[in-house]
Amino acid sequence: MKFFLYADNLNPTQLKRRAPEHKFLYLATLADHTIKFCRWSSQWRCGLASIAPSPGEKVWGGVFELTDEDLKIMDQFEDDVPQGAYRHLQITVVNEAGDKELVTTYAANPIGKFKPKDHYLDWVLKGLKQWKLPEEAIEQWQAYRPK
Fold first, then answer.
1. What is the pLDDT of residues 95-147, one digit of tens each?
2. Which pTM value belongs to this model?
3. What is the phi/psi pair of residue 28, to 5°?
4. Beta-carbon-side half-sphere exposure of residue 39 (alpha carbons within 13 Å)
């Protein structure tokens, strides 16, 4: 299954643990969406990222081929937060050539507004750099740092 991954799921350590058979396909953006920190993580002790509609903005990530087994493990790890906190969502992403494709991603069922912490953002940024996301994506995540 083609899956759009963003935020902490791009971190190579986390991705290897949660989707050991993953295969990177391409970088992509999700138009008219932004990152919101609308779930609390007891593991990270801060807000967890999710996508949310936001006209004119975009979320950078990667499209990966995930096996059924990968998906099962990913869904179990999403249970680190309460069951039903994240759901599968069909979205249309755009690759670097401008082609559109319907894929699946995770989106949170929001419960509030939370702040991310530096250690969580550093973890995300390691993934962005691993997959060579553009400077624009890195700057976007740097802007989420607590002031």
1. 999 999 999 999 999 999 999 999 999 999 999 999 999 999 999 999 999 88
2. 0.94
3. -155, 165
4. 25
| Helix (DSSP H) and strand (DSSP E) numbers for the chain | 4, 5
Longest dimension (CA), the chain: 41
The amino acid at residue 133 is L
Listing DSSP states for 13-64 in one string gives HHHHHH-TT-EEEEEEEEEEEEEEEEEEETTTTEEEEEEEEEEEEEEEEEEE
Q: Find the distance separating the first CA and the last CA of the chain, reported in whole Å.
A: 39
Residues 117/48, Cβ–Cβ less than 8 Å: no
Two tokens at 99?
């082609």
Residues 38, 14 contacting (CB under 8 angstroms): no
> Can you read off the two tokens belonging to residue 133?
């996301």
Residue 121 tokens, joined: 């953002």
SS3 107: strand
